[in-house]
Amino acid sequence: MNAPAHIKKSDKKPSPAERLMVMADTDMQAVNAIIKERMQSPVGMIPDLAEHLVEAGGKRLRPLLTIACGHLCGGVTGSHHKLSAAVEFIHSATLLHDDVIDESDLRRGKKVANRIWGNSASILVGDFLFARAFNLMVETGSLEALDILSTASSIIAEGEVHQLAALRDIHVTEQTYLEIVGAKTAALFAAACEVAPVISERSVADRQALKAYGQNLGLAFQLVDDALDYGGLEAALGKSVGDDFREGKMTLPVIRALEKADKDERAFWHRVIVEHTQNDTDLEQAVSRLRKSGALQATLDMARIYADKAVSALDRFEDSEWKSTLEDLSDFVVSRVS
Questions:
Q1: Helix, strand, coil percentages, rounded to 5, for the chain
Q2: Can you give the residue ranges of every domain in the chain?
Q3: Matching CATH topology for 14-143 and 156-315?
């Protein structure tokens, strides 16, 4: 596995996530080495399938958060590296399972693993990665870290089941939606941040602050993703737009649109979500309705609220490059919607 590359010289200002990758480059090389080592198995399909997913790209945001929070708390050790790898394994395992459930075709521009190796293999390799994550947790010798990440794993699973139960249910409330995304997305962000001060033996207050940072960052991240699934605020629809719509997921943009829907608009959403009867022009219609109702802007406004809460959670920490980059990251999560 290649280590994260340094940012190439260009006129474009690097994003906070890219800055974190550079700042944590040495640490992430160690994390990537652990990932590479621990996904090996004499059963050839396991490393082949795991590497297909792990090598697909992404900024390794969740393990980066563990490393960054470790530095914020005074420094990073080998245990931080192991927990960062565990966080990435948990995330990768959930992606493998999600792609089976969602019947996805692409992940980060590459064909999803279950389209190549089949659903059964993807589910079982996901289970293997979960097991590897727990191996790494145990090796740190921290029961608190084990408790945090194992609890997060169960919460993520509950969130995914909750989302499945809410599929195509037009009566899903905003509160239920926030419970779902808080579990399936924000819980791992929170855990990735919280384990760092635990390993660094910092105070309970530091631990709670970084947990709050991760939780709020994760909520903002998912809210923006749900807006981006309908093209964000741009006029043109991107290639990856519409997955949630086609699957009949009740995300906040749709929930907010329904709050202002008249009889005809409600009939449209009932047909495309509940009845799941969609034609070639429905996605474009859905995007138009969401923009016209202000539902996309409302979703982004809520994301901004959570991003600001994430920044506030860092107030107790001394000023440093790590702190300022984590603050900037929170802003970037929202501002990536043009």
A1: 70, 0, 30
A2: 14-143, 156-315
A3: yes
* CATH class of the domain comprising 156-315: mainly alpha
CA–CA separation, 251 and 94 (whole Å):
19
Q: CA–CA separation, 162 vs 95, rounded Å?
A: 16
C-alpha separations of 27 from 35, 74, 82, 180 in Å = 13, 14, 11, 32
- What does the chain come to in residues? 338
CA distances from 16 to 156, 193, 290, 333 (A): 26, 16, 29, 9
- What span, in angstroms and rounded, lies between the C-alpha atoms of 83 and 167? 33
* 3-state SS string for 241-252: CCHHHHHCCCCH
- Do residues 19 and 336 touch, judged by C-beta distance below 8 A? no
* Three-state secondary structure call for residue 230: coil
Token pair 């995300």: residue: 251
| 258 in Cβ contact with 269 (< 8 Å) | yes
Helix, strand counts (H, E) of the chain: 17, 2
User: Is the torsion defined by CA of 24, 106, 334, 167 positive or negative?
Assistant: negative
What topology does CATH give the domain 14-143? Answer: Farnesyl Diphosphate Synthase (1.10.600)
State how far the Cα of 229 lies from the Cα of 243, in Å rounded to an integer.
7
**Per residue in 203-255, pLDDT tens?**
999 999 999 999 999 999 999 999 999 987 764 444 468 889 999 999 999 99
In DSSP notation, 280-303 reads TTHHHHHHHHHHHHTHHHHHHHHH
Nearest alpha carbon to residue 257 among 221, 230, 218, 234: 230
**pLDDT (tens digit, 9 = 90+) per residue, 121-160?**
899 999 999 999 999 999 999 999 999 999 999 999 999 9
- For 126, list phi and psi in degrees, rounded to 5: -60, -45
